[in-house]
C-alpha cells in the first residue's frame, strides 16, 4: 500500500505508467465518444416532449457530471500535496484545473443552448445552473491564481490551499443554493428531475458519460506528463528522454 | 537559548492586544478609508430607489437583499488591503518570524478589520434599513446577521488577501477567489431577515450563520497562516 | 439511422441549429483540450534540448578554460 | 554556548531556473560576525531569507537555526502612518511590549532625539532607516540577520551601528550580515563571497 | 540648450502613444489579467440574483441599478491606484519633469483606465443585462450611458487619486469631496435606462451625461495636473 | 557655453517648521560635478527636489534651471510588472522613443545582459537600481540631478557609474549629486556640506 503511494510519488515511474496507460486509453476514449455521440445524435428517436433538442443532453449531462467529479479530483490532489508533501499530487491538481474548467464551460454552454428551444430562454437562475456557474468560477480562480504567481513553487502551494478551502465549501455552497432556489420556486415548470429519460436514450447517455470520464483521464494525464518533464528538467532521466526524443 | 525562551515568555495575550491596538490605530490614521465602505454603502443604497421607484411597498421586499449585497461589496472593497501594506514595508516578515503561533497572531488583524467594516455597517444598518423601508421587524435580525456574516466574510476575505499578498496586482483576482465562498453567507443572511419580516423565526438562519462563523474561526486562521507564508515567499 | 435524409438530419425538425452548434462547440473545445498538452510537450522538449546544449557548451568552455 | 545559533549543510538554492547557491555550508557560533559579500544579483538576499526561515520553498539541504532571531531586510519595515515611537512600540517581532523609556533611549541612540513623534512619512530616507535600526537597541534576540544595514546611513550612522555590533558580539550574540562596503571598525570573523559560487 | 530643444522635438503624439501602450501593458500584464475585469463584473452581478431572487420580475427592476453599481465599484477599485504606483516608485516625478504639457500627458492614463474598466463593461453589458433580465429596450441606452458615465467617473476619480497621491493613505479627506460627484452620473445613467424601458426618450439623460463628460474632459486634466504637482511635492 | 545650467541665489527652504536650508547660493556650469554631502536629515533630498523644480512650494529665493534635466531620486522608478526592456522603453521622461538596440546596449553596459526580459519584480535590489541607472546611458539631457545614485550598488557598479560620470562631464554635461560615500575615481569640482547649515 505505502509502497504504491511511494511509487505514485516517484516522477519517472508515474511518467512511464501514464505513458503506457494513455497508449490504450486514448484510442478507447476516442472510439467510445465517437460511437456515443453519433448514436445520440443520429440513431435515437426524438423525445416526445422536446423533440430533437434533447439530443444535446448527450453532451450536456456527461460534461456536467464529469466537471463536478473533476473538482473533487483536483481538491483531493491538492489536499494530498499539502498534507503528505507528495509533489506528484501537486502536479495532478495543476493539471486538473484547466480540464475541469473546460468541461464546466461546455456544460454551461450546451445547457444554455438547450434552454433556448426548451424554455425559450438562454439563461435561468436555476439552482443547479447557478451552482455550476459558481463551480466554473472556482476552477478559473485556481487557474488565475497559479498564473499570477511568478514563483511557481509558491503558486502551486497557494492553489492547493485554495482548492482545499473550495472543497470544504462546495457542499455548503450547493446546499445553500439548492435551498435558496427552493425558497423562490418560480411559477413556471420545474426544470430538472421529472425529465423522464426513456431507456432507449439511457444506453447512449451512459456510453457518453463513460467516454467523457475516459477523455477526462487522458487529458489529465497528458497535462501531468508535460508538467512532470518541466519540473524534472534537471534530472538524468529527463535528459535521457529529451535525447531520445530528438 | 535565552532569546528563544524570552521570546516565548511574553504572554500571548499582551502581544495580541498590542497588535490589535496597532491595527486600530492604523485604521484611525486614515479615517476616510474606514469611512469609505459606509460612504459606498449610502451611495449604493441611493441607487435602489432609483431602480424601482421610492414607494415603500415597492422597496420593502428587496430591502434585505439590497442591504446584504452592499454589505458584501463593502467588505470586498476593504479586505483586499488587510495584509498588503505590511507585506510591502516588510512588517509581515516580522510577523512570520515571531516565535508565537501565527494562528493567534492573525486574530487581531481579523478582529480589527471585522470591527471597522462589519461592526460599523451593522451599527449603521438600522438607518439604511429605515431608508429602504425595511419592515422594522427585520432590523434586529439584520444587525445580528450582518455581525455574524461580516465575521465569516472577513475570515474568508483575509484568506484571499493572504493568497494574493505577494502579487503586486491583487485587486480583482481576490474577488474571483473569495466571492464564490461568500455565497452561502449572503443567502442565509437575506433569508433570515426575510423570515423575520414574514413573521417566522429567524433563529435557524442565524444559527446557520453562527455555525459558518465558528467553523471559519476554527479553520480559517490555519489556512490564512499557511497562505501568508506562501504569499510572502513570492 | 433515425433520419431518412441528410436534410432531415441537418434541420432536426427546426432544432438543427441548436443541436449542431452545441455539438460543434463541444468538438472544438475537446479538440483544444486534447491538442494543447501535446503542443506544450513538443515546445518544452525543444526548449530543453536547447538548454542542455547551452549548458554542455558552457561546461566544455569551463573545462578548456583553466 | 555549545550548539551553534545557526547551522546549514549542503544548501542549494534555485530561483527562476537558475542555481544561485550551490553546496553552501555555514555554522554561526556565539560571538561571531559573518559578512556575506557578492555582486548585485549574486544571491545574498535570497540566501539570508532562506537562512532566516522566511522562504521555505525552492531549496534543498539541512538547515537549523535558533528558534527565534531578528531579521532586518531591504525594506524599511517602518509604517509611514505611525510615528517612530509608535513604530517601535507596535513592532510585530513578538518580543512583547517595550517600556516607553527604553524606546526613547533607543531612538536617541540612533540620533532621532526630538523626532519621536514626527509622522514617519516626513522623515528622510536615512532617518526612516534609523527608526528601523533602533530595534537593534531594543531587541533581546541573540542572532541577527541584517541585509545591507548601512544603506542610506551617513558616516556617523555607520560608525554608530558598528559600535552596536561590537557590543552585541561581546555580550555573546552573533551577526550574519550582507554589505557592499567593507566594515570600518570591526573585523568580520568569517567573510563569504558569493560571486564565486 | 540642445537638451531642452531636443526634449521638445519629440512629437507629442508619439509620446502619448508610448504612455498609452505603457498603461495598457501595465493593466494587462498577464494573459489572465485581460479576463479579470470581466470575471469581476460577472461575480459581483452573480450576487444580485442570489440576494434578490432568481425570477425575472424580481431582477428586472434592479438590472440597471445593479449594472451601474458594478461599474462604479470597478471604477472605485481601479482608479484609486491610477497614479499611486507611479508616485511610489518615482515615475511620477519623471512625468512632471518632462517638458511636454502635463495636460496632455495625463490623457493616456485616463484613456487606458477608461478602456480597461468602463469600455470593457459597456461592451459586455448586454450579456449581463440579459442575465439580469433587463428589458431589452434599455440595452442600447445602457451601453451608451455606461460609456459616457465611465468617462466622467474616470476623470473625477483620477482627480481624487491625484489629490491624495502624496498623502500616503493618510487622512484623505478629499475622497469625501469626490464621492458626491459620482452621484449625478449614477442618477442620470440609471434614470436614462429606466426611461428607455418605460418607452420614453432617453436622449435628455444621455445628453446630460455627455455634457458632464465633455465638461470633465475639458477641465479635468487641468485640475489633475495641478493636483499631481501638489501631491508629488509632499 | 555662457549661461549656467542651474543657478540659485539666497535659497531658503523650510520643512516641518524647521529651516533646513539658509541663504544657499549655487551655480552649476557645463563640465562641473557638484557633490552635496550632509548627515541624515540635513536636507539633501529636499534641496535636490527644489533645485529640480519638483517641489515648488515652501522655499524662497531665486532659482533658474535649464528647461529640461534628468532627475533620479531615492526610489527606483522601476515598474515591477514590466521587464527591464519595457521599463526603459516606456519611460516617462518625455525624451521620446529609444531604439531597441540602444536599450539593449544600455542594459548590457550596466551589467544586465541576459536580464532584458525577466520581470523586474524578480530582480535583486541592486539589479533594479541598475535598470534605473541604465537611463544614464540613454538620456540626451545635459544636467543630471542624482540622489544617492550609489545605494545598493556593488563595487563594480560604483566604478562603472563613475566612468559614466566622467564621460558625461567631458562631453560638456553637468552633474549635481548627493552621496554619503566619497567618490573613488573622480574629484568633484564643488563639494558642499549641508550639516553645517
Ligand atoms: C443554462 C442552461 C443549463 C445549464 C447551465 C444546465 C446545467 C446542468 C447541470 C449543472 C446539470 C447537473 C448534472 C448533474 O448534477 O448530474 C445538468 C443536468 C441536466 N440538465 Fe441541465 N442545464 C441547463 C439547461 C438544461 C435544459 C434546458 C435541460 C432540458 C430540459 C437540461 C436537462 C438536464 C438534464 C436532464 C440533466 C441530467 C439530470 C441528472 O443527471 O440528474 N438542462 N444541467
Ligand atoms: N514633507 C515634509 N514635512 C515635514 N518635514 C519634512 C518633509 N520632508 C522632509 N522633512 C524633514 O526635512 C529634513 C530633511 O529631509 P531630507 O530627506 O531632505 O534629508 P536628507 O538630507 O535627504 O537625508 P538622507 O541622507 O537621510 O536622505 C528631515 O529632517 C525631514 O524630517
Ligand atoms: N522570486 C524570484 N524569482 C526568480 N528569480 C529570482 C527571485 N528572487 C530573486 N531572483 C533572482 O535571484 C538572484 C539573486 O537575487 P538576490 O536579491 O538574492 O541578489 P542579492 O545578492 O541580494 O543582490 P543585491 O546585492 O542587489 O541585493 C537575482 O538575479 C534575481 O534575478
Ligand atoms: Mg539584496
Ligand atoms: Mg535623502
Show the helix and strand layout:
The complex is a heterohexamer, with one copy of chain A (246 residues), two copies of chain B (234 residues), one copy of chain C (66 residues) and two copies of chain D (197 residues).
Chain A (H helix, E strand, L loop, with lengths): L1 H8 L1 H33 L13 H27 L3 H33 L7 H22 L3 H32 L15 H33 L4 H10 L1
Helix pairs in contact in A: 2-7, 3-4, 3-6, 3-7, 4-5, 4-6, 4-7, 5-6
Chain C lengths: L5 H6 L4 H49 L2
Chain D lengths: L5 E10 L2 E11 L4 E5 L6 H8 L7 E7 L4 E3 L11 H6 L10 H10 L15 H9 L9 E5 L7 H16 L3 E5 L11 E4 L4
Parallel strand pairs in D: 3-7, 3-8, 5-6, 6-7
Antiparallel strand pairs in D: 1-2, 1-4
* Number of E strands of chain D: 8
Output the helix-strand order of chain A: HHHHHHHH
| Sequence of strands across the biggest β-sheet of chain D | 5-6-7-3-8
Radius of gyration of chain A: 20 Å
Shape of chain A: globular
Secondary structural class of chain D:
alpha/beta
The helix-and-strand class of chain A reads mainly alpha
Q: Which percent range fits the helix content of chain A?
A: over 70%
- Our measurement of the CA-to-CA distance between the termini of chain A, rounded to an integer number of angstroms, reads 37 Å
Helix amount of chain D, in percent? 10-25%
N to C succession of SSEs of chain D: EEEHEEHHHEHEE
Q: Name every ligand kind in the structure.
A: protoporphyrin IX containing FE, adenosine-5'-triphosphate, magnesium ion
Biggest sheet record of chain D: 5 strands, parallel
Task: Give the chain pair forming the largest contact, with residue counts.
Answer: B-E, 41 and 45 residues
How confident is the prediction overall: mean pLDDT of chain A? 85
Strand content of chain A: under 5%
Work out the strand percent of chain D.
25-35%
Q: Low-confidence spans of chain D: pLDDT under 50, at least 5 residues?
A: none
- Give the biggest beta sheet of chain A: none
- Give the radius of gyration of chain D: 17 Å
Low-confidence stretches of chain A: 187-191
Give an overview in words.
The complex is a heterohexamer, with 1 copy of chain A (246 residues), 2 copies of chain B (234 residues), 1 copy of chain C (66 residues) and 2 copies of chain D (197 residues). Chain A has helices spanning 2-9, 11-43, 57-83, 87-119, 127-148, 152-183, 199-231, 236-245. With 246 residues, chain A is an all-alpha fold. The model of chain A is unreliable at 187-191 (pLDDT under 50). With 234 residues, chain B is mainly alpha-helical. Chain B is 83% helix and 0% strand. Chain B has helices spanning 2-9, 12-29, 31-52, 56-79, 84-88, 91-97, 102-131, 139-163, 171-197, 203-231. The longest helix of chain B is centred in the middle third of the chain and has 30 residues, at 102-131. With 197 residues, chain D is α/β, with parallel strands linked by helices. Chain D has a 5-stranded parallel sheet, sandwiched between helices. The longest helix of chain D has 16 residues, at 155-170. Chains in contact: A-B, A-C, A-D, A-E, B-D, B-E, D-E, D-F, E-F. The interface between B and D is large, with 39 and 37 residues.
Amino acid at each position: 500500500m505505502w509502497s504504491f503511494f511511494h511509487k505514485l510519488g516517484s516522477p519517472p515511474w508515474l511518467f512511464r505508467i501514464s505513458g503506457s496507460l494513455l497508449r490504450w486509453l486514448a484510442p478507447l476514449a476516442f472510439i467510445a465518444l465517437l460511437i456515443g455521440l453519433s448514436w445520440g445524435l443520429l440513431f435515437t428517436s426524438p423525445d416526445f416532449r422536446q423533440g430533437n433538442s434533447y439530443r444535446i443532453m448527450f453532451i450536456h449531462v456527461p460534461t456536467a457530471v464529469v466537471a463536478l467529479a473533476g473538482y473533487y479530483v483536483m481538491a483531493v490532489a491538492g489536499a494530498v500535496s499539502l498534507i503528505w508533501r507528495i509533489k506528484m499530487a501537486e502536479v495532478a491538481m495543476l493539471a486538473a484545473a484547466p480540464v475541469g474548467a473546460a468541461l464546466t464551460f461546455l456544460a454551461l454552454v450546451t445547457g444554455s443552448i438547450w434552454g433556448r428551444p426548451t424554455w425559450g430562454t438562454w439563461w435561468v437562475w436555476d439552482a443547479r445552473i447557478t451552482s455550476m456557474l459558481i463551480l466554473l468560477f472556482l476552477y478559473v480562480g485556481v487557474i488565475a491564481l497559479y498564473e499570477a504567481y511568478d514563483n511557481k513553487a509558491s503558486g502551486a502551494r497557494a492553489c492547493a490551499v485554495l482548492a482545499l478551502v473550495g472543497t470544504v465549501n462546495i457542499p455548503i455552497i450547493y446546499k445553500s443554493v439548492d435551498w435558496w432556489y427552493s425558497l423562490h420556486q418560480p411559477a413556471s415548470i420545474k426544470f430538472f428531475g421529472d425529465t423522464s429519460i426513456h431507456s432507449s436514450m439511457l444506453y447512449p447517455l451512459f456510453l457518453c458519460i463513460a467516454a467523457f470520464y475516459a477523455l477526462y483521464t487522458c487529458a489529465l494525464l497528458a497535462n501531468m506528463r508535460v508538467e512532470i518533464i518541466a519540473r524534472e528538467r534537471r534530472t538524468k532521466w529527463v535528459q535521457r528522454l529529451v535525447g531520445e526524443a530528438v | 537559548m535565552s532569546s528563544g525562551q524570552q521570546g516565548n515568555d511574553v504572554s500571548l495575550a499582551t502581544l495580541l492586544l498590542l497588535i490589535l491596538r496597532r491595527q486600530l490605530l492604523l485604521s484611525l490614521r486614515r479615517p476616510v478609508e474606514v469611512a469609505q465602505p459606509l460612504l459606498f454603502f449610502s451611495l449604493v443604497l441611493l441607487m435602489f430607489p432609483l431602480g424601482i421607484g421610492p414607494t415603500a411597498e415597492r422597496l420593502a421586499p428587496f430591502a434585505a437583499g439590497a442591504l446584504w449585497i452592499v454589505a458584501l461589496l463593502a467588505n470586498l472593497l476593504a479586505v483586499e488591503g488587510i495584509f498588503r501594506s505590511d507585506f510591502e514595508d516588510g512588517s509581515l516578515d516580522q510577523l512570520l518570524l515571531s516565535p508565537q503561533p501565527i494562528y493567534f497572531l492573525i486574530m487581531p488583524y481579523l478582529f480589527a478589520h471585522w470591527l471597522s467594516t462589519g461592526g460599523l455597517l451593522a451599527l449603521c444598518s438600522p438607518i439604511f434599513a429605515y431608508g429602504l423601508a425595511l419592515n422594522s421587524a427585520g432590523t434586529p435580525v439584520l444587525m445580528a446577521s450582518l455581525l455574524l456574516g461580516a465575521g465569516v466574510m472577513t475570515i474568508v476575505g483575509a484568506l484571499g488577501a493572504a493568497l494574493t499578498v505577494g502579487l503586486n496586482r491583487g485587486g480583482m483576482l481576490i474577488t474571483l477567489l473569495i466571492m464564490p465562498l461568500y455565497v452561502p453567507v449572503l443567502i442565509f443572511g437575506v433569508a433570515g431577515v426575510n423570515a423575520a419580516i414574514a413573521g417566522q423565526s429567524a433563529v435557524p438562519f442565524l444559527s446557520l450563520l453562527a455555525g459558518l462563523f465558528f467553523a471559519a474561526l476554527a479553520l480559517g486562521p490555519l489556512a490564512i497562516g499557511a497562505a501568508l507564508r506562501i504569499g510572502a515567499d513570492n | 439511422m433515425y433520419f431518412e435524409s441528410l436534410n432531415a438530419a441537418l434541420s432536426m425538425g427546426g432544432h438543427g441549429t441548436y443541436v449542431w452548434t452545441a455539438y460543434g462547440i463541444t468538438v472544438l473545445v475537446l479538440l483544444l483540450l486534447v491538442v494543447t498538452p501535446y503542443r506544450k510537450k513538443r515546445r518544452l522538449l525543444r526548449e530543453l534540448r536547447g538548454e542542455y546544449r547551452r549548458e554542455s557548451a558552457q561546461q566544455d568552455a569551463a573545462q578548456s578554460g583553466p | 554556548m555549545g550548539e551553534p545559533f545557526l547551522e546549514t549543510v549542503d544548501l542549494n538554492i534555485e530561483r527562476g531556473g537558475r542555481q544561485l547557491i550551490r553546496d553552501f555550508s555555514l555554522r554561526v557560533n556565539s560571538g561571531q560576525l559573518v559578512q556575506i559579500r557578492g555582486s548585485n544579483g549574486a544571491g545574498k538576499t535570497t540566501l539570508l531569507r532562506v537562512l532566516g526561515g522566511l522562504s521555505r520553498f525552492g531549496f534543498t539541504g539541512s538547515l537549523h537555526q535558533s528558534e527565534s532571531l531578528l531579521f532586518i531586510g531591504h525594506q524599511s519595515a517602518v509604517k509611514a502612518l505611525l510615528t517612530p515611537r509608535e513604530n517601535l512600540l507596535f513592532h510585530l517581532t513578538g518580543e512583547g511590549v517595550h517600556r516607553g523609556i527604553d524606546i526613547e533611549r533607543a531612538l536617541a541612540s540612533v540620533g532621532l532625539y526630538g523626532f519621536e513623534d514626527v509622522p514617519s512619512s516626513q522623515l528622510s530616507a536615512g532617518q526612516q532607516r534609523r527608526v528601523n535600526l533602533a530595534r537593534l537597541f531594543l531587541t533581546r534576540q541573540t542572532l541577527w540577520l541584517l541585509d545591507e544595514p548601512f544603506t542610506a546611513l551617513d558616516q556617523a550612522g555607520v560608525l554608530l551601528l558598528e559600535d552596536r555590533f561590537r557590543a552585541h558580539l561581546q555580550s555573546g550574540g552573533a551577526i550574519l550580515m550582507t554589505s557592499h562596503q567593507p566594515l570600518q571598525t570591526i573585523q568580520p570573523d568569517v567573510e563569504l563571497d558569493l560571486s564565486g559560487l
